[in-house]
Design goal:
The chain is mainly α. It is built from five helices and three strands; from the N terminus they run ααβββααα. It has one domain.
Length: about 130
């Protein structure tokens, strides 16, 4: 009878411990990964056009408003141009060292850089078009 009571008491404690542990695990699990949370955001965008050829865009609460005027677009275009110039400088550097050049060709680095430059040129063209449409 004594062994039966010890076994019953031990089993009861084990069950209580498992229940408590499983409840703690359920409380700790993260809700959603950040990428899912960002893709599900359905916020509002407020656009305001003023007389001086600028557009003010407010995206989310807590973020500062950005005025999309000619100066804003010129700054963004300058950033893209700087990025393209940096890629060209890196390509020239890699081409000047034969071992680096052969390794870059084997890894497809030149094709990646061409693809990035193409995307940047498309972004630049979009920015120029948006600036000219103000």
């Amino acid at each position: 009878m004594r062994i039966y009571m010890k076994t019953l008491l031990t089993a009861g404690m084990l069950v209580c411990t498992c229940v408590a542990f499983s409840q703690q695990i359920q409380q700790v699990t993260p809700a959603e990964p950040p990428s899912t949370m960002q893709s599900q955001y359905k916020g509002t965008t407020t656009t305001e056009v003023t007389q001086n050829r600028s557009v003010t865009i407010s995206k989310r609460a807590g973020q500062p408003q950005q005025t999309h005027d000619v100066a804003y677009y010129n700054e963004e275009i300058a950033k893209v141009d700087t990025h393209i110039a940096a890629i060209d400088a890196k390509i020239a550097h890699v081409n000047s060292i034969p071992s680096e050049q052969s390794l870059a060709q084997q890894n497809g680095w030149f094709q990646q850089m061409d693809q990035i430059k193409l995307e940047l040129n498309q972004k630049r063209a979009t920015l120029v078009q948006e600036r000219d449409n103000l």
